[in-house]
Amino acid sequence: MIVERDAKNVHLESREFKCESIQKPSSDRIVLLFAGQMAWRGLEVLAEYTLPENAWYVRKSIQVKNLEGSPIRIKDMVVDRIFWPDSDSLAEPDNPLFLENQIFWGMEWPIADPVVDSKGFAFKHYPDFLIKSGESWTSKTMSFGVSEHGRIAEAFGRYILRIRANRVDFTTLYFDWLCHDNSGPLESEILANFSVLKKMKELYGLQFDIYNSDAGLVESLGTYFPQYKPIFDKRFPNGLQTIAEASADLGMKLGLWIGPDGFGDTPEEMEARKQQLVSWVRDYNVGLFKLDTVVSSISHENKYILEKKYQALADALSEIRVIRPDFVAINHRVNNSPYMLTMTDCILWKGEETYIDVHIANQDAWLFNRVCSVRRNLSTTFYDVPFRLFEDHGICFNSSVERWADDFVVQAFGRASVISPEMYGTFFFLKDDDYPRLARLIQLHKQSHEILKTSFLLEDGDIAHSSGTSAMLVLRNMTWEKIEKFVFLDNRIGLSIQKGTPLILRQRYPYERHLSRNGEYFKAGETVRMTLEPFEVKLIHVDSQGTDDPYIQGIGYEIIPRPDEKKFDVLLL
């Protein structure tokens, strides 16, 4: 590490320290204590190694203690170093580094700096942290993991999912982009949308978890809140208080579209930005930040200031999660490092936005404009691991709204990411009889959370989700011909129940229908033939335990939900 003391930078080597003890504070931790020698007496370095239970990786961090003497500043820190025979192959290494197809090694920090020199290979970060007498500082964490040969990407992916910041399974998100442009909304416009949502809640129980107001509410293109505040104050004379209270009355939290930076160059500016972020969450019913580089990227030519900016953002999000454990932070192209998932909840899937015929469009002759969105992949992997911590930008109500519900089913029940269901745009473009359908699909999704967490890829790009005793299947026919598909009622759709167990099968979309064979229940282990019309999407529910949700035999129907989930109307088709 490089430290500054008495206005001089000194490169401290391991020979300046002596190992005094090896401690084992718990079954999964070992701490090596190194005491400074000669001119560095009073300085202690503790190297902590953690091997979690049933883990395939070790994590290491360094704590520096200044027990006495003048303050020292930690400028650069190398937590660990490896010596590799073929160092020339590491000339432009990534973080993490994969070695021999069975080792991963990296620093849990999205802007870690790889260093290759005559001493080997290392990752470095730049804390520029002042340790006063009697104080201490802890480095970023390094990780070292192993796998069977050829499976190292999967091992790394599973490790990232263990250390991730996200602790939210699903969030029903609506954001109002395309109700306004980058100039932003007025308070009256947001309240007008709230009045519609209030009516829909009273009629059908329609409920979003988060209402995110996109560009131009508190920040806009290239402009952070301190500079944007005069515009904000004119549009929102009561600040966020009015819409915060109105959203809470509707059972929703607010989301804010903001930039990832705004931390300035000085400690005072960084602290002010941090406190602003925390205040929005603590005082104004905010439950989500969409961190978007349309405001600006988070950058600086000075590596020490850049690290402090990222650290300030990480500290703010960490403090916010103490206040609101279900808080969500969306990484909208801020940084593609997998280690961003230690700070934020998700990444933007494929970098795509879903404004039909604007950002996404049909490339071939298909029956509906929206087929380009409906036919997108239903599953994704992250370092060879099935992955839900992404935002697919949801479904857009602008442009052509035809078959919006197909798009919804594919997004919410197919990909079933952490941000689902997700919708945006001008939702009053929907027809009046679409609102109960929207409310019903959201309601059904909330009832299915335990099922939707685990996915099983089917043939033709279809997907099943299962809890072991129940399953949800999304089947698609994106062709011009009627087709048949076979559903296997076994472990291929995630069922782990005894063969012969009676099953209740229901089609949930495009309308409700009880499925049976000559009036008899299907059984686990059997095969069901499904017919799909051209460009049709079906949502099939398989259940072995029964449900309080009644069903009608012999005819298709729609459920018209009401505010009380136990009460509903039925429309026979």
Could you characterize the architecture of this molecule?
The chain is α+β, with helices and mostly antiparallel strands and 573 residues long. Helix content is 21%, strand content 32%. The chain is built from ten helices and 36 strands. The strands form seven sheets. A nine-stranded parallel beta sheet has the order 23-20-19-18-17-16-15-25-24. Strands 3, 4, 5, 6, 8, 9, 13 and 14 form an eight-stranded antiparallel beta sheet that branches. Strands 26, 27, 28, 30, 31, 32 and 34 form a seven-stranded antiparallel beta sheet that branches. Strand 10 (113-117) and strand 11 (120-125) form a beta hairpin. Helix 2 packs across helix 9 and helix 8 (404-415) runs parallel beside helix 9.
Number of E-state strands: 36
CATH C-level class of the largest domain: Alpha Beta
Looking across the biggest beta sheet, what order are the strands in? 23-20-19-18-17-16-15-25-24
CATH architecture of the largest domain: Alpha-Beta Barrel
Shape: globular
Distance from first to last alpha carbon: 73 Å
Helix content: 10-25%
If you compute it from the alpha carbons, what radius of gyration comes out, rounded to the nearest whole angstrom? 27 Å
User: Helical stretch count?
Assistant: 10
Structural class: alpha+beta
